[in-house]
Amino acid sequence: MNVPLWLALLCVGVLGIKLIRPPWWLVAALLLGGYLLADSLFAPLVNSLVK
Known about the structure:
Blueprint (H helix, E strand, L loop, with lengths): L4 H16 L3 H15 L4 H8 L1
């Protein structure tokens, strides 16, 4: 069974928010920070660290 990545991330995100209940500002900060980091000069560095 092949599941699209966006669907898997959405499910994990919803479960994490329901179970852990972090503050909404923290969720927004992590999403915005990840989006900005992915489009920055540090993206190749993060990519090499993740692989």
